[in-house]
Specification:
By secondary structure, chain A is mainly beta. Chain A contains no helices and eleven strands. Chain B is built from no helices and eleven strands. Classes of the chains: A mainly beta, B mainly beta.
Chain lengths: 115, 112
């Protein structure tokens, strides 16, 4: 596709449930990033992949959060035992090299609401 | 943690006026980027300025960088209602320099 695609665009789940959020990066982009954004705040870094491996997962808040990118393209962010505090917009971005050196392209995000 | 801090948090101007937003950061950087976000969803890259550059232009945007003060400014000239959005600065983080840390943003409102 032409841009970064995230699905679903909205997700409502009950507290304690498991959710998966998907990100399709721009074709050929080796770097992929997950952020989450709460209302009125800037995006908060979660994890960064270079190819299939997580180059930096220091932003994952706890072990309920996990992300994979098995073939170096599509990535899935997985949240176990969701809590109301997990409610936020989850943003995915990709870039052709290290994001710190070049432009990052963002998807439209998945708005997660935990009730 | 957030590296950059934008100032002001909110700015309201009339169409045609210039808008200036500032960003301060804490650690040494090799570049600083500005992004725009409409309606709390996807961010759009506006401009990247490297640490050896002092000023950069792109259309109606002018970005300055002062590494001695660890600050940057974004100027939008001749603003339009369509410029209404949140604007964020972002800087590379950590040893890998592989990801960006964003500030809290400036919410710009341009009234027609």
């Amino acid at each position: 596709g032409a841009g970064v695609s995230q699905t679903p665009s909205n997700k409502v789940t009950e507290k304690g449930k498991y959710v998966e959020l998907r990100c399709d990066p721009i074709s050929g982009h080796t770097a992929l990033y997950w952020y989450r954004q709460s209302l009125g705040q800037g995006p908060e870094f979660l994890i960064y992949f270079q190819g299939t491996g997580a180059a930096d997962d220091s932003g994952l808040p706890n072990d309920r959060f996990f992300a994979v990118r098995p073939e170096g393209s599509v990535s899935t962010l997985k949240i176990q035992r969701t809590e109301r505090g997990d409610s936020a917009v989850y943003l995915c971005a990709s870039s052709s090299s290290r994001q710190g050196n070049t432009e990052a392209f963002f998807g439209q995000g998945t708005r997660l609401t935990v009730v | 943690s957030q590296q950059g801090e934008e100032d002001p948090q909110a700015l309201s101007i009339q169409e045609g006026e210039n808008a200036t937003m500032n960003c301060s950061y804490k650690t040494s950087i090799n570049n600083l980027q500005w992004y725009r976000q409409n309606s709390g969803r996807g961010l759009v890259h506006l401009i990247l300025i490297r640490s050896n550059e002092r000023e950069k232009h792109s259309g109606r945007l002018r970005v300055t960088l002062d590494t001695s003060k660890k600050s940057s400014s974004l100027l939008i000239t001749a603003s339009r209602a369509a410029d209404t959005a949140s604007y964020f600065c972002a800087t590379p983080h950590g040893g890998s320099q592989g990801n960006l840390i964003f500030g809290k943003g400036t919410k710009l409102s341009v009234k027609p």
